[in-house]
Please model this.
Amino acid sequence: MPDGLIRPPYVPVDVLTPDRDIVHGHFTPGDQVVILKGVAGGELWGDAMTVVTPSWHTPTDEDGWRLRDPNGGERTYVTGHPRYLVHLSRRCPDCLIYLRAMEDYLLPKLADTARIDCGWYSLTALDQLVHVNDARSGR
Model:
């Protein structure tokens, strides 16, 4: 795996994100967000992005957001569903509740690990970020 990430023999299934009820309007252009992907050094970690513009999220057939990776890279822009995102730029109650629930769920299970990508997300050929529970067969 890239960047020294390890994959433990047991990776917890993400039971929280698929049922998260966050509406499209919760995020606005310019918001800084993170997509939680795993644990590093006893803390949650993920990809930090900036919300750019509304975009249709084809894998879920719902309103999504076009996101920009401020570090650039192979995929500077991706489209993600709002339920995948957590505010970095402000402390909103909905995101804090979700963040705390993810910490309570993940940290006890993965406390003894260095850095783990839990493998919950993949990218389609159209740079659509897809959670494993949203993936459709054949895409």
